[in-house]
Protein backbone atom coordinates (compact mmCIF):
# COMPACT_ATOMS: atom_id res chain seq x y z
CA UNK A 1 0.00 0.00 0.00
CA UNK A 2 1.21 3.53 -0.80
CA UNK A 3 -0.70 5.02 2.09
CA UNK A 4 -0.59 3.65 5.60
CA UNK A 5 -2.93 4.43 8.44
CA UNK A 6 -5.14 6.60 6.27
CA UNK A 7 -2.54 9.37 5.93
CA UNK A 8 -1.38 10.72 2.57
CA UNK A 9 2.34 11.35 2.08
CA UNK A 10 3.44 14.83 3.11
CA UNK A 11 4.51 17.29 0.43
CA UNK A 12 8.21 17.12 1.43
CA UNK A 13 8.02 13.33 1.12
CA UNK A 14 6.57 13.63 -2.37
CA UNK A 15 9.27 16.12 -3.31
CA UNK A 16 11.99 13.76 -2.12
CA UNK A 17 10.38 10.94 -4.08
CA UNK A 18 10.64 13.01 -7.26
CA UNK A 19 14.27 13.78 -6.50
CA UNK A 20 15.15 10.16 -5.87
CA UNK A 21 13.71 9.10 -9.23
CA UNK A 22 16.06 11.40 -11.14
CA UNK A 23 18.76 8.75 -11.42
CA UNK A 24 16.22 6.19 -12.69
CA UNK A 25 14.92 8.67 -15.26
CA UNK A 26 18.46 9.37 -16.45
CA UNK A 27 19.32 5.67 -16.74
CA UNK A 28 16.10 4.98 -18.64
CA UNK A 29 16.83 7.88 -20.99
CA UNK A 30 20.35 6.63 -21.66
CA UNK A 31 18.88 3.28 -22.73
CA UNK A 32 16.14 4.79 -24.92
CA UNK A 33 16.70 3.71 -28.53
CA UNK A 34 14.89 6.75 -29.93
CA UNK A 35 16.69 9.95 -28.85
CA UNK A 36 13.88 12.11 -30.20
CA UNK A 37 11.68 10.85 -27.37
CA UNK A 38 14.25 11.92 -24.80
CA UNK A 39 14.80 15.29 -26.49
CA UNK A 40 11.06 15.96 -26.57
CA UNK A 41 10.45 14.90 -22.98
CA UNK A 42 13.40 16.47 -21.19
CA UNK A 43 12.29 20.16 -21.25
CA UNK A 44 9.11 19.27 -19.35
CA UNK A 45 11.17 17.42 -16.76
CA UNK A 46 13.53 20.40 -16.44
CA UNK A 47 10.57 22.70 -15.83
CA UNK A 48 9.22 20.32 -13.19
CA UNK A 49 12.53 20.22 -11.34
CA UNK A 50 12.93 24.02 -11.60
CA UNK A 51 9.49 24.49 -10.12
CA UNK A 52 10.17 22.14 -7.23
CA UNK A 53 13.50 23.84 -6.52
CA UNK A 54 11.72 27.19 -6.52
CA UNK A 55 9.38 25.82 -3.85
CA UNK A 56 12.11 23.98 -1.91
CA UNK A 57 15.34 25.92 -2.59
CA UNK A 58 17.40 24.11 0.04
CA UNK A 59 16.48 20.53 -0.86
CA UNK A 60 19.82 19.00 -1.80
CA UNK A 61 18.23 16.00 -3.53
CA UNK A 62 16.24 18.27 -5.83
CA UNK A 63 19.27 20.46 -6.47
CA UNK A 64 21.30 17.41 -7.43
CA UNK A 65 18.50 16.23 -9.72
CA UNK A 66 18.48 19.64 -11.39
CA UNK A 67 22.24 19.61 -11.81
CA UNK A 68 22.11 16.15 -13.36
CA UNK A 69 19.21 16.92 -15.69
CA UNK A 70 20.61 20.17 -17.06
CA UNK A 71 24.08 18.66 -17.54
CA UNK A 72 22.71 15.65 -19.41
CA UNK A 73 20.38 17.73 -21.57
CA UNK A 74 23.05 20.25 -22.55
CA UNK A 75 25.59 17.53 -23.28
CA UNK A 76 23.24 15.35 -25.31
CA UNK A 77 21.20 17.87 -27.27
CA UNK A 78 22.63 21.39 -27.13
CA UNK A 79 26.42 21.59 -27.00
CA UNK A 80 27.16 20.39 -30.54
CA UNK A 81 24.84 22.91 -32.20
CA UNK A 82 24.77 25.85 -29.77
CA UNK A 83 27.80 25.94 -27.44
CA UNK A 84 26.89 29.36 -26.03
CA UNK A 85 23.48 28.10 -24.92
CA UNK A 86 25.10 24.93 -23.59
CA UNK A 87 27.54 27.01 -21.53
CA UNK A 88 24.60 28.83 -19.94
CA UNK A 89 22.88 25.53 -19.16
CA UNK A 90 26.07 24.13 -17.63
CA UNK A 91 26.39 27.28 -15.54
CA UNK A 92 22.86 26.73 -14.21
CA UNK A 93 23.64 23.08 -13.53
CA UNK A 94 26.84 24.06 -11.72
CA UNK A 95 24.93 26.56 -9.60
CA UNK A 96 22.44 23.86 -8.59
CA UNK A 97 25.34 21.54 -7.77
CA UNK A 98 27.12 24.14 -5.66
CA UNK A 99 23.90 24.75 -3.78
CA UNK A 100 23.49 21.01 -3.19
CA UNK A 101 27.04 20.76 -1.83
CA UNK A 102 26.39 23.79 0.37
CA UNK A 103 24.57 21.51 2.81
CA UNK A 104 28.06 21.37 4.29
CA UNK A 105 28.46 24.74 5.93
CA UNK A 106 31.05 27.09 4.39
CA UNK A 107 31.27 25.28 1.03
CA UNK A 108 31.00 28.52 -0.92
CA UNK A 109 33.85 30.02 1.08
CA UNK A 110 35.98 26.88 0.75
CA UNK A 111 35.55 26.52 -3.00
CA UNK A 112 36.93 30.02 -3.59
CA UNK A 113 39.74 29.73 -1.04
CA UNK A 114 43.13 28.02 -1.00
CA UNK A 115 43.35 24.65 -2.76
CA UNK A 116 44.81 22.82 0.25
CA UNK A 117 42.00 24.12 2.43
CA UNK A 118 39.41 22.99 -0.11
CA UNK A 119 40.93 19.51 -0.33
CA UNK A 120 40.68 19.27 3.46
CA UNK A 121 37.09 20.58 3.33
CA UNK A 122 36.11 17.83 0.88
CA UNK A 123 36.87 15.23 3.56
CA UNK A 124 33.55 16.17 5.18
CA UNK A 125 31.65 14.55 2.33
CA UNK A 126 30.74 10.87 2.55
CA UNK A 127 29.50 8.20 0.15
CA UNK A 128 25.94 9.50 0.36
CA UNK A 129 27.20 12.76 -1.15
CA UNK A 130 28.66 11.08 -4.25
CA UNK A 131 25.72 11.91 -6.58
CA UNK A 132 26.02 15.60 -5.69
CA UNK A 133 29.81 15.57 -6.03
CA UNK A 134 29.76 13.68 -9.32
CA UNK A 135 27.09 15.69 -11.11
CA UNK A 136 28.49 18.98 -9.85
CA UNK A 137 31.92 18.00 -11.16
CA UNK A 138 30.38 16.95 -14.48
CA UNK A 139 28.62 20.28 -14.95
CA UNK A 140 31.67 22.17 -13.74
CA UNK A 141 34.00 20.39 -16.15
CA UNK A 142 31.66 20.99 -19.07
CA UNK A 143 31.36 24.66 -18.16
CA UNK A 144 35.14 25.01 -17.98
CA UNK A 145 35.58 23.32 -21.37
CA UNK A 146 33.33 25.95 -22.99
CA UNK A 147 34.96 28.88 -21.17
CA UNK A 148 38.66 28.18 -21.74
CA UNK A 149 39.35 31.90 -22.24
CA UNK A 150 37.91 32.73 -18.82
CA UNK A 151 40.35 33.40 -15.99
CA UNK A 152 37.75 32.04 -13.56
CA UNK A 153 37.45 28.79 -15.50
CA UNK A 154 41.21 28.24 -15.64
CA UNK A 155 41.50 28.97 -11.93
CA UNK A 156 38.79 26.38 -11.23
CA UNK A 157 40.62 23.48 -12.86
CA UNK A 158 42.63 22.35 -9.85
CA UNK A 159 39.58 22.66 -7.60
CA UNK A 160 37.56 20.58 -10.04
CA UNK A 161 40.26 17.91 -10.09
CA UNK A 162 40.16 17.73 -6.29
CA UNK A 163 36.38 17.28 -6.42
CA UNK A 164 36.67 14.44 -8.95
CA UNK A 165 39.39 12.81 -6.85
CA UNK A 166 37.20 12.91 -3.74
CA UNK A 167 34.36 11.33 -5.71
CA UNK A 168 36.68 8.52 -6.80
CA UNK A 169 37.81 7.97 -3.22
CA UNK A 170 34.24 7.67 -1.98
CA UNK A 171 32.71 5.48 -4.72
CA UNK A 172 34.56 4.97 -7.97
CA UNK A 173 31.87 2.52 -9.17
CA UNK A 174 29.09 5.13 -9.14
CA UNK A 175 26.95 4.97 -12.29
CA UNK A 176 29.01 2.29 -14.02
CA UNK A 177 32.36 3.80 -13.09
CA UNK A 178 31.53 7.28 -14.36
CA UNK A 179 33.88 9.05 -11.91
CA UNK A 180 36.73 7.33 -13.77
CA UNK A 181 35.32 8.60 -17.08
CA UNK A 182 35.24 12.09 -15.64
CA UNK A 183 38.87 11.91 -14.52
CA UNK A 184 39.91 10.33 -17.82
CA UNK A 185 38.41 13.19 -19.83
CA UNK A 186 39.90 15.75 -17.45
CA UNK A 187 43.40 14.30 -17.90
CA UNK A 188 43.10 13.67 -21.64
CA UNK A 189 41.66 17.07 -22.54
CA UNK A 190 44.43 19.09 -20.87
CA UNK A 191 47.83 19.77 -22.43
CA UNK A 192 50.65 17.95 -20.67
CA UNK A 193 52.23 21.24 -19.63
CA UNK A 194 49.27 21.97 -17.34
CA UNK A 195 48.73 18.51 -15.95
CA UNK A 196 47.34 16.46 -18.81
CA UNK A 197 48.39 12.83 -18.88
CA UNK A 198 47.21 10.44 -21.60
CA UNK A 199 48.64 7.36 -19.90
CA UNK A 200 46.74 8.05 -16.69
CA UNK A 201 43.66 8.92 -18.72
CA UNK A 202 43.84 5.51 -20.39
CA UNK A 203 44.06 3.84 -16.97
CA UNK A 204 40.89 5.61 -15.88
CA UNK A 205 39.09 4.71 -19.11
CA UNK A 206 40.07 1.06 -18.63
CA UNK A 207 38.88 1.09 -15.02
CA UNK A 208 35.57 2.68 -16.02
CA UNK A 209 34.98 0.00 -18.64
CA UNK A 210 35.80 -2.71 -16.10
CA UNK A 211 33.08 -1.24 -13.87
CA UNK A 212 30.45 -1.38 -16.61
CA UNK A 213 30.88 1.90 -18.49
CA UNK A 214 30.76 -0.06 -21.74
CA UNK A 215 26.98 -0.09 -21.16
CA UNK A 216 26.98 3.66 -21.78
CA UNK A 217 27.13 4.93 -25.35
CA UNK A 218 28.66 8.15 -24.06
CA UNK A 219 31.65 6.23 -22.70
CA UNK A 220 32.59 4.89 -26.13
CA UNK A 221 32.14 8.36 -27.63
CA UNK A 222 34.36 9.94 -24.98
CA UNK A 223 37.06 7.31 -25.42
CA UNK A 224 37.10 7.85 -29.18
CA UNK A 225 37.18 11.62 -28.81
CA UNK A 226 39.85 11.98 -26.16
CA UNK A 227 42.12 8.97 -26.56
Task: Compile the SSE list and pairings.
Layout lengths: L10 H10 L1 H10 L3 H21 L4 H19 L4 H19 L5 H5 L3 H8 L7 H16 L5 H21 L2 H16 L8 H13 L6 H10 L1
The share of residues in helices is over 70%
Average pLDDT for all residues:
87
Low-confidence region ranges: 1-10
- Number of helices, where a helix is a run of at least 4 consecutive DSSP H or I residues: 12
**Backbone CA Rg:** 18 Å
Shape: globular
Biggest sheet overview: none
Distance between the termini: 51 Å
**Beta-sheet strand percentage?**
under 5%
| N-to-C order of helices and strands | HHHHHHHHHHHH
Topology, number of strands:
0
Q: Which class of secondary structure composition applies to the elements?
A: mainly alpha
Describe the structure.
The protein has helices at 11-20, 22-31, 35-55, 60-78, 83-101, 107-111, 115-122, 130-145, 151-171, 174-189, 198-210, 217-226. With 227 residues, it is an all-alpha fold. 36% of the residues are buried. Residues 1-10 have low confidence and may be disordered.
In short:
With 227 residues, this protein is mostly helical. The chain has helices at residues 11-20, 22-31, 35-55, 60-78, 83-101, 107-111, 115-122, 130-145, 151-171, 174-189, 198-210, 217-226.
Features:
227 residues; globular; disordered N terminus
Amino acid sequence: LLVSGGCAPTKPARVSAVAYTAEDVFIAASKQSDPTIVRAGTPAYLMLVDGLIEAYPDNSDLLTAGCQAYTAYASSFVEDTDPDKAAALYAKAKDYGFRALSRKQDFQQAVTGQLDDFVAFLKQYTKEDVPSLFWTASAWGKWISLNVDSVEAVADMAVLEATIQRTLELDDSFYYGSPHLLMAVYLAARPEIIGGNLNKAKEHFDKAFSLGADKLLSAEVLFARYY
